[in-house]
Automatic annotation (TrEMBL):
<dbReference type="GO" id="GO:0004719">
    <property type="term" value="F:protein-L-isoaspartate (D-aspartate) O-methyltransferase activity"/>
</dbReference>
<dbReference type="GO" id="GO:0005737">
    <property type="term" value="C:cytoplasm"/>
</dbReference>
<comment type="function">
    <text>Catalyzes the methyl esterification of L-isoaspartyl residues in peptides and proteins that result from spontaneous decomposition of normal L-aspartyl and L-asparaginyl residues. It plays a role in the repair and/or degradation of damaged proteins.</text>
</comment>
<dbReference type="GO" id="GO:0032259">
    <property type="term" value="P:methylation"/>
</dbReference>
<feature type="active site">
    <location>
        <position position="69"/>
    </location>
</feature>
<keyword id="KW-0808">Transferase</keyword>
<dbReference type="InterPro" id="IPR029063">
    <property type="entry name" value="SAM-dependent_MTases_sf"/>
</dbReference>
<protein>
    <recommendedName>
        <fullName>Protein-L-isoaspartate O-methyltransferase</fullName>
        <ecNumber>2.1.1.77</ecNumber>
    </recommendedName>
</protein>
<comment type="similarity">
    <text>Belongs to the methyltransferase superfamily. L-isoaspartyl/D-aspartyl protein methyltransferase family.</text>
</comment>
<keyword id="KW-0949">S-adenosyl-L-methionine</keyword>
<keyword id="KW-0963">Cytoplasm</keyword>
<dbReference type="GO" id="GO:0030091">
    <property type="term" value="P:protein repair"/>
</dbReference>
<keyword id="KW-0489">Methyltransferase</keyword>
<dbReference type="Pfam" id="PF01135">
    <property type="entry name" value="PCMT"/>
</dbReference>
<dbReference type="InterPro" id="IPR000682">
    <property type="entry name" value="PCMT"/>
</dbReference>
Length: 221
């Protein structure tokens, strides 16, 4: 990712406000989610060639076959997570670091894991430039979760999975929530899974979305 001047101008702030209005009209009602999206400069996470598109409600490529998710999708998943300050959250699929930074802004203790090594290394350096140094970044197979740091209050998967990996449910605390898109390679249904005492869980289904595939042992090969 080329080094950008990390400037947040009145024009950027105005575009961000317009983006927040747009996703609010699409049904996002959690004021803390909207505030985080309004606060975090999305254009910082863009390659210089695409930076003029940063406040469109669309996904864009970030290299290594990955994307920065559509803002509405980020907001929708974050709203389903029901994030509370101080919660320990695992994100599967660091990507550009944008979603993880939203969770960080909302006061979560964020652990995030990325399958693509080049992307992991670049994003780690970039987040340090932003001054986000207390986020825990890992390189590895996110479909297996992060057992060495479990359990988690929340787990968020930002790639399309063929199934719900058992390891992710196991790594939730009782009462914990997993948000994951599950389906085929072209589209996935968003699931919100809440773990009960005794290891049982309930599952709620939401709209269809289109994510890049979750790679790994319990993802796509």
């Amino acid at each position: 990712m080329p080094l950008l001047k990390l400037e947040d101008t009145y024009l950027h702030k105005g575009k961000r406000k317009a983006l927040v209005r747009e996703i609010k009209q699409k049904g996002i009602s959690d004021e803390r989610v909207l505030e985080a999206i309004n606060t975090l400069p999305r254009h910082f996470f863009f390659d210089s060639a695409l930076v003029s598109h940063a406040y469109e409600d669309k996904a864009f490529p970030i290299g290594e076959g990955q994307t920065i998710s559509q803002p509405y999708t980020v907001a929708f998943q974050t709203q389903l997570l029901d994030v509370k300050p101080g919660q320990k959250i695992l994100e599967i699929g660091t990507g550009s670091g944008y979603q993880a930074s939203i969770l960080h802004l909302m006061g979560a203790e964020v652990y995030t894991i990325e399958y693509q090594k080049k992307l992991f290394e670049g994003t780690k350096k970039f987040l340090n430039r932003l001054g986000i140094t207390d986020m825990k970044l890992f390189y590895g197979d996110g479909s297996q979760g992060l057992a060495s740091h479990a359990p988690f209050d929340r787990i968020l998967v930002t790639a399309g999975a063929p199934v719900v990996p058992d390891a992710l449910i196991e790594q939730l605390v009782p009462g914990g929530i997993l948000v994951i898109p599950v389906g085929d390679r072209s589209r996935q249904k968003m699931l919100k899974i809440t773990k009960q005492k005794g290891g049982k869980y309930t599952s709620e289904e939401y709209d269809y979305f289109a994510f890049v595939p979750l790679l790994g042992k319990d993802g796509w090969r």
